[in-house]
Here is the input.
Amino acid sequence: MKARRIILVVVLISVVIFWLIFEYFIDLPIVTQNDVHYFLHSGATTRDIARDLNQLTDLFHPLVFRLAARIHHVDEHLQAGEYIFPRGSSIHNILTILSQGKVVYYNFTLVDGWTFRQVMASLNQSANIQHLLTHLTEKQIAEKLNLSQQTPEGWLFPETYRYIRGDSDLHLLKQAHALMQEKLNIAWQTRAEGLWYRQPYQALIVASMIEKESAVLSEKPLIAAVILRRVKEWIPLQIDATVIY
Here is the structure.
């Protein structure tokens, strides 16, 4: 009986010592030089991450990372994308970043008043993005956005969109188009009575002309009134925006 107690105490002490050593290693900084930029591919496992970190950092042993990842159930929450492990990061810090999916996001700003050609020119110069639309015509791109029009012109809402490394230009255009549809639908549902518009797209065309005509907010209602009056009376619009376009 006494021998059993001694064995139990020894086992417990061994477990405690092992756990303390283990905790020491997972809290020990392994990113000791510069920040580590790491891209986690879809389908990668904690075994893959441990192997990579063993090459990129001062990781004591890949098994330590894998064991810590298993204990923290990180392998159940892995999200593909680009990560930054700051200088001074420990295994524990890296596991927290991975488990919370703190991927690096980039911004693409679709400027108010841009033509579709300007949008595509900016997209083509954007880094860390898949360029799937570079050699397609405007009509082909419109088809990919499920548009019945010949061009996506006017169908992209000006906003700053976030994306991760590997997202495509089509993905960003779909976001911009979906947001434009949402905003246009709200505006259509709350439009004033007595307007001649038969469908939202007509209102969108006029809104685009107004936007191109003036960037001054107080002038836009006046421009809209002029356009609506001329359309109602079948008078040529004769505004700079249409001529420039």
User: Anything to note?
Assistant: Residues 2-26 form the longest helix (25 residues). Strands lie at 36-40, 81-85, 105-109, 160-164.
